């Protein structure tokens, strides 16, 4: 199939928005191109315990909450430290165990607030993840140490290479003296337990990262990527990357289920529909931004009312989003630089031009 024909065909449910035609098209694509063009679905909802669902994180065997608490939002300057800490602890008390964060979120405030919130026995109740931007071993080592200090812990459960947005990122990460050497060394030292990567720009880059890793004999424990009701129609991570992750038993971390609320501005889907869709995919965790108690309640309502969607229901939902999704209008993380922190601040990546002063984290 030619690339243009593939991209045209890859928008499942694209046949005039009608359900029978959408399903017929999906079956045709699956037959012609294999399972990669059919978004895989979760085989079960997970295990219910209290108000939360729990799923297995790939082949690690770790049990984690199906909803993860996004680290960026808890560091918003609109929130005070005390408000953020109460929100994090409330989420944990109600059953959320997966904590997302990053070295660069809110100039370090997100990690520092998380570190404060995880005192008094809360650290033992969560699976703690953070991300680093460094592409060189030296830069990555410094960022890992800073993350440990801010999070006030002696180990981080999962560290991920952040914002793999460029085709040269995988080559830099796995080069001699690259950042993967730093995370592997940190794992050997007991400072981290698992290794993954994230990105939001283009599924082809994710696939290239997996290839470069395989070429180096390395297997990722997790991969984080956008999975939402618009994704199926434009540069689809769900169609192109998700089948490969399932095949390799890599833990799937879904993000941007609402595109930082931009998807909701389309007025064709509700927050609960967005979360139900992402939970219906073979995601280990759906990470969502939570910056106020009512948003936390919304996440738990989505879990409470969740039943895995059948393929017919998926087709109906995606048919509703097709018209507004085809050009990536509501997935700004794919089509603009708005979400590309390391593009705006490239010295975070490290490299030959990086000065000693710039190696210092934004807020140590």
Low-confidence stretches: 1-36, 353-360
Counting DSSP E segments of at least 2 residues, the number of strands comes to 11
Q: Tell me which oligomeric state these chains represent.
A: single chain
Choose one word for the global shape: globular
Report strand %.
5-15%
Q: Strand order across the biggest sheet?
A: 4-5-6-7-8-9-10-11
Topology overview:
Layout: H1 3-9, H2 19-33, E1 47-49, E2 52-56, E3 63-65, E4 67-69, H3 71-74, H4 81-94, E5 98-99, H5 109-117, E6 127-132, H6 137-151, E7 156-161, H7 168-174, H8 179-188, E8 192-198, H9 203-215, E9 222-226, H10 237-240, H11 242-248, E10 251-255, H12 271-280, E11 285-288, H13 293-304, H14 311-325, H15 332-335, H16 341-344
Parallel strand pairs: 4-5, 4-11, 5-6, 6-7, 7-8, 8-9, 9-10, 10-11
Antiparallel strand pairs: 1-2, 2-3
Helix pairs in contact: 4-5, 5-6, 6-8, 7-9, 12-13
Can you describe what's shown?
This protein starts with a helix and ends in a 20-residue tail after the last helix. The protein has 364 residues and is of the alpha/beta class. Helix 5 (109-117) packs across helix 6 (137-151), helix 6 (137-151) packs across helix 8 and helix 7 (168-174) runs parallel beside helix 9 (203-215). The strands form two sheets. Strands 4-5-6-7-8-9-10-11 form an eight-stranded parallel β-barrel, surrounded by four helices. A three-stranded antiparallel sheet has the order 1-2-3, with helices on one face. The chain is globular. It is 41% helix and 13% strand.
């Amino acid at each position: 199939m030619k690339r243009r024909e593939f991209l045209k065909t890859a928008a499942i449910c694209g046949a005039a928005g009608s359900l029978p035609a959408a399903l017929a098209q999906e079956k045709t694509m699956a037959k012609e191109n294999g399972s990669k063009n059919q978004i895989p679905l979760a085989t079960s909802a997970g295990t219910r315990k209290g108000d939360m669902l729990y799923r297995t994180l790939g082949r690690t065997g770790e049990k984690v909450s199906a909803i993860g608490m996004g680290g960026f939002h808890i560091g918003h300057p609109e929130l005070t430290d005390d408000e953020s800490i109460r929100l994090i602890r409330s989420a944990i008390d109600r059953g959320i165990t997966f904590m997302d964060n990053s070295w660069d979120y809110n100039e370090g405030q997100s990690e520092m607030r998380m570190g404060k919130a995880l005192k008094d026995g809360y650290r033992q109740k969560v699976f703690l993840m953070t991300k680093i931007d460094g592409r060189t071993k030296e830069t990555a080592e410094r960022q890992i140490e800073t993350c440990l200090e801010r999070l006030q812990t002696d180990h981080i459960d999962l560290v991920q290479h952040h914002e793999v947005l460029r085709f040269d990122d995988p080559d830099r990460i796995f080069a001699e003296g690259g950042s993967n050497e730093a995370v592997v060394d940190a794992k050997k030292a007991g400072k981290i337990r698992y290794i993954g990567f994230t990105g939001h720009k283009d599924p082809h880059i994710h696939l290239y990262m997996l290839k470069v890793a395989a070429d180096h004999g390395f297997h990722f424990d997790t991969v984080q990527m956008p999975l939402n009701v618009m994704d199926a129609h434009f540069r689809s991570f769900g169609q192109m990357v998700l089948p490969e992750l399932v095949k390799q038993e890599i833990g799937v971390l879904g993000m941007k289920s609402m595109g930082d609320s931009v998807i909701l501005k389309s007025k064709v889907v509700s927050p609960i529909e967005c979360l139900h869709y992402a939970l219906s995919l073979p995601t280990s965790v759906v990470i969502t931004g939570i910056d106020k108690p009512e948003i936390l309640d919304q996440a738990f309502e989505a879990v409470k009312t969740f039943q895995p969607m059948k393929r017919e229901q998926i087709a109906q939902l995606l048919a509703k989003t097709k018209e507004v999704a085809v050009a990536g209008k509501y997935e700004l993380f794919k089509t603009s630089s708005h979400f590309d922190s390391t593009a705006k601040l490239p010295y975070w990546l490290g490299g030959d031009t990086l000065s000693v002063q710039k190696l210092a984290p934004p807020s140590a």
